[in-house]
Design brief:
With 492 residues, the protein is of the alpha/beta class. It folds into two domains: 235 residues, P-loop containing nucleotide triphosphate hydrolases (Rossmann fold); 235 residues, P-loop containing nucleotide triphosphate hydrolases (Rossmann fold, 3-Layer(aba) Sandwich), CATH 3.40.50.300. The chain contains 18 helices and 22 strands. Strands 6-7-8-3-9-10 form a six-stranded mixed β-sheet, sandwiched between helices. It has a six-stranded mixed β-sheet with strand order 16-19-20-13-21-22, with helices on both faces. Strands 2-1-4-5 form a four-stranded antiparallel β-sheet, covered by helices on one side. Strand 4 and strand 5 form a beta hairpin. It binds adenosine-5'-triphosphate and magnesium ion.
Length: 492
Amino acid sequence: MKTVLKLSSISKYYPGVIALDQVSMDFSEGEIHSVMGENGAGKSTLIKIISGAIEPSGGMIEIGNEKMKHMTPALARQEGIGVIYQEFNLISSMSVVENIFLGECVGNKIMPDFNEMHHRAKKIFEEFDVDIDTCEMVGNLTPGKQQLVEIAKALSQNVKIMIMDEPTASISVADVKILFNIIRKLKEKKVTVIYISHRMEEVFALSDRVSVLRDGKFIATKDAGEVVRKDLITMMVGRELNESFPDRAIEIGAPVLEVKGLYGNGNLDINLTLHKGEILGIAGLVGAGRTELAKVLYGAVKADKGDIIVKGKKAALRTPRDAINAGIGYIPEDRKNEGVFLEFPIDWNITIMCLPRVSKKTIISEDKIKNITEEFAKRLEIKTPDLKQYVRNLSGGNQQKVVIAKTLAAETDIIIFDEPTRGIDVGAKQEIYYLMNELIMQGVSIIMISSEMEELMGMSDRILVMHEGKLQGELKKEEFTQQYILELASGL
Ligand SMILES: Nc1ncnc2c1ncn2[C@@H]1O[C@H](COP(=O)(O)OP(=O)(O)OP(=O)(O)O)[C@@H](O)[C@H]1O
Ligand SMILES: [Mg+2]
């Protein structure tokens, strides 16, 4: 097969970190090539080097007949390299068509040809069977649709190598299907797809070849047909990993949280009870109102009516501060926007919700901050040379661990985990399951919202299924089946 892109001995150094260490890899025409590795392994760094967003510290890139020390964004564009980054790059206050042709000149400089733009955008969407109104504001679209706009943007520039960094991390099951169709059509058109995901099933469903990075080093490239899940995991984490869900033996106690007749934002209608020592799973499709419910319980969204009773006492949760004081912590799903302050250090972020623990009157103890931060960095294996590092400089998955640590440090005895393992690598996932069990043993009660059926069924004592803001059913452990949950979630 024809090699379209070749990396030789690519390295990237940051102060105290070797993000990539002499990585060599090649990519063929028309193949779907997945790149896998733990959080912080260097995947995003690698694709930023391919797209010219950052310069490598050493090595060589070959594309077509050209050899170069580093790519530039202009050249990448010229060579047909399109990237969907881990973070969305669209402007939400602009329309779909404006986003797609942003920075491009259609028509002439004074009079952009909007008809032509709409025409071209529609053609791209039609070709890939996607139904999106080109006039719609991007901010009004679901995350899945926003991602399709990002892809359309790349396709409008005659893409030859399409790179996707965790494209399915925050989109619905239905949108994943659409995305996979697009990826397969791209392959038919001989486009090379470089695909990054922590979801093993996706990698096996799509890939022709898989490459693994570990600690910035290249481990191997394999034909997807010749490796099994277990081997791939061993290559990624460097040891064998037991993927079963950990057991916990604890008696489920009295109610700690009761929600009665909760209505909000037009469509919630919720009654539920969480008991001490329980993990209560909440299933539902994207848009079912799960996060909205969590936000009401966390005082971030106001309910229209209904009672929230915490340990027998009616609680008035007007702000997250009220919720924390009442003993309810929330780990948000949208961690970039709601979870962390990217421009502040790790230790600052982790201790911001537990200031009383680290200060006396108004004096903040640096030692206490250090102790708490070190404890969580160790427990969650946050990968960084320095806990004063800005969160922006962490890998995606490690940023998420900071968000989890921040809520845990507040030491509430009810914790709502919203998509706790999204973007988290397979080894760290296990750590989070063990951590949840540890918390339960310490007397914490957990609500777990998750779209990952396996983990929901593997970790929950009970599962509530939501559909359009309402509880559609409640399942006891013996009743857990994926099909039953999905039926309820789709409103059947
Ligand atoms: N600007 C930066 N400054 C300092 N260190 C950085 C910077 N960018 C990345 N790193 C470090 O480089 C390493 C590789 O990060 P990278 O984002 O490539 O990981 P990743 O494989 O994409 O992980 P994830 O699965 O969590 O997204 C990490 O240790 C990260 O902290
Ligand atoms: Mg990444």
